[in-house]
Amino acid sequence: MADIFANLKQAVLDGDEELVAEYAQRVIDEKIDPVAAIEKGLIKGIEELGAKWKAGEAFLPDVMMAADALKTGLDMLEPLIAESGATGGEAKGKVIIGQVAGDIHDIGKNIVGALLTAAGYKVYDIGIDQPAENFLAKAEEVGAGVIAAGALLTTTMAAQKHIIEYLKGQNVRDKYKVMIGGGPTSQAFADEIGADAWAETADEAVMLCNKLIAG
Hints:
This is Methionine synthase. By secondary structure, the protein is α/β, with parallel strands linked by helices. The chain has nine helices and five strands; from the N terminus they run ααααβαβαβαβαβα. It has two domains: about 1-85, Methionine synthase domain (Methyltransferase, Methionine Synthase (B12-binding Domains), Chain A, domain 1), CATH 1.10.1240.10; about 95-215, Rossmann fold (3-Layer(aba) Sandwich), CATH 3.40.50. The protein is globular, with a radius of gyration of 17 Å.
């Protein structure tokens, strides 16, 4: 089993979508815990590549290929989590997740979404480059309690602020907990725009979501 996790990690590092699909299929066929496969395989791979990129040992094309490989694995394994009852039956809560308007970077969003799903939340991923009204429309449609908005560029951080202003303008700010994240964001920025929580890592996002839902 550890071999499959290691192979998944390496396949993501190598940006090899075919190999990721092959090992993800083995996880499915051999009824291996999909949550463990995501956390100990896929996410370990993308985290290691992220560290290499920061250190200048990997380049943007490597990151893009790894992100595609990660998405291939997540697309195969996430439905398994929901089916298997790894979420413990009734979902803990409903979360809308997406990248804000103007932002097309989805690696972090995909990882957070996967971990939230694994932690028992029903996650509705509305994708990249989403205006404030789309976050609210989906939240209203499915009855979500948390809106998670990511921004990976300093130029798109203002769109996170706009989501909160839009909710206020629609007189629904009190209905939703808003969590933000992304490379250039910070706790200070979250405080400044009136967000309910800021997560630096995907693990933190899950812990904060637990607190927001409980609170």
